[in-house]
Design brief:
CATH architecture of the largest domain: 3-Layer(aba) Sandwich
Shape: globular
Strand content: 25-35%
CATH topology of the largest domain: Rossmann fold
Radius of gyration: 26 Å
Number of helices: 11
Helix content: 10-25%
CATH superfamily of the largest domain: Alpha/Beta hydrolase fold, catalytic domain
Largest sheet: 8 strands, mixed
Number of strands: 38
Length: 736
Amino acid sequence: GAIGVLAGEQRLETLLRRRTTQVKVSPFLFQRPSQTKSPQQPPSQAPATEQRPVVDNYHGTDVIDRYRWLEDGESAEVKEWTRAQNQYSEAHLKASPERAEVVESLKTLFSGKNADSPYTVGGREFVYKRVAGQNQAALYMKNDEGQFEVVLDPNSWSEDGTEALDWRYHSPGGRYIAYGRSTGGDEWSRLHVLDLESGKETSEVIPRTRASSIAWEPDETGFYYTKYPEPGSVPEGEENYHRHVFHHTLGEDGANDPKIFGEGIPKEAWTSVSLSEDGKKLLFSVSQGWTRDDLIVQDVETGERTVLMEGVEAQSQAEFVDGGKKLQVLTTLGAPRKRLLEIDLAQPEQENWKELLPQDPDATLQSVTRSGDKLYANYLRDAHSEIAVYGTAEGESLQNEGKVELPGIGTVSGMRRTEDGKLRFDYTSYNFPDAQMELEPGQTKPSIIAQNEVDFNFQDYEVKQEFFRSIDGTKVPMFIVHKKGLEPDGETPTLLYGYGGFDVSLTPRFSKSTAHWLKEGGIYAVATLRGGGEYGAEWHEGGMLVNKQNVFDDFITAQQHLITSGYTNPEKLAIAGGSNGGLLTGASVTQAPEQINAAIVQVPLLDMVRYDEFGIAKLWRAEYGSSTNETQFDFIHQYSPYQNVKSKLGRMGTPYPATLLMAGEKDSRTDPLHARKMTAELQRAQGADQATHPILLRVEADAGHGAGKPIGKVVEAEADKWIFLQQQLGMLSDQK
């Protein structure tokens, strides 16, 4: 049924009463006894951090920032402070001799053979894969002898694997590959072009092509692409914005490429470009925030533009069909859970738009694929996938012909039609390693054609979904994964993960790293929080801007559900999240410390009062708001984790949970200043309780937000995360 504010027995007063009871009890019943700590005692106190208070006044409210000086990551004193914090954290994380076992466990899990997924472009066959022992995946092409040989190998670009392949686009005939590479995780790609006929790179090196959108011309003489301005060409601080479309001709100097689109649009707009198959029409998709996409078609020859959507609060993803004569549009326009439209470009007025697939009021449409006389629609129903099949007889409306039989509660992605008319898609779940599945025409049960090999007996684990009521009565789902036959006794170590933002849907996916946690006997839970896209636009909007506190309330009540349902208790409960999920876990630490014993706060945003002054963060004002706006400042200041760290007295004597903050030195999305400042603030407030509930910071050199991270660094970071959680939840052999 519809998700909304629902009445129920677990209303606000009951939940608040339960939280109050736990506040009183947890410092005494749920504090881990000191004798359970590892015999190799690390330092009990973090290095001292000097306070240099700065007071800012926002709309009449003074805001104190004790650690403003830690924002400057380039200063020598901040680098020295970070080095000391890393040493302190390492003393904790390397103290247990069992860490070596965790590393070996992860290496084994990550060394399994990934299923190959060959694809064809212009008669050439490719496969993109990572071979065991390599830091990065590489691109292979089948040679004349029928063997795959490497043609694009990031492992050869640097000794430590920190040079990454960010993205790639094949030309239509298959001769060229435009690709982006970056260094140290900064994601600021440089565009290169590989000529597969010569086996050599062309002269092209175009900087500032972060996450570039590229559309090759049919004759392969050039392409349209997006890039950012060079520093100094726009006002200072704006070089991370103004993502515009340019045209490049192979062999020409990219610095002289003409701008095709972008003048006059807001600097924060995110533009993508595509080209019709005949090369006659361009499509510009201009995203403004996470609730609006403008769609504009341009005639390549005349430059004439047709505005299809502009200034309308609707998400829309469009693609050319019928040889460029029409657009197929997946949109929330008039349908918060999305519907499928067709626009004839010869009659582009809205009154001529045709609805191919209306909104399903109980499921969120993700994608559609045509194969023969069938249309396959990938839906999310209660945050997991189902594929509906529709007949497409000419001249008739679509007829629902049932569903594809999937293996269980899982996630479908990458639906595509094969050359011989079959439906192929990727499928995964928490207990089902990534697989490629194929459906024969006229059948309903797909077959597995390839699956990742993992040293993990996934058939021994089960995935289930439970629902709970949030503080305002909203019904919220949660996935729970554990060994089959587990009888909840309130004592099982449990990790709760969440995100809740930017219309991102958290659906069941297999994780090689999380498999380690499950093998150690832990429960893994994922809460489907407001702010995500699982239930459409209204679910997203229910967790953004002034409604952001709903996300934290959902997460906190998810913790309560795990406790009151008998899965675990506050001493055995940990939380984790990254990026926007790092904000989530940071808020949970400050708002409900009594409910958890450990927290992973990864690549986070935490000083929300100042977040949009750094890097590319102005892009996120549509999601979070900005302190420059008085109304938005009020709700941001109320939840911003950095500004809401309280003294022990203000926490009624409850210690903050042991917390590991993780950041990348070159993160260009969420600046590591957030993790540095929050670490100092939490250590100050935690005081002597650091002896049992440490506050640790792990800042990784030559690393960013996570994209393109070499596997060696991934294993080391994940090992630190798991050993920290196992230490804090009493899971190590000398603690049992």
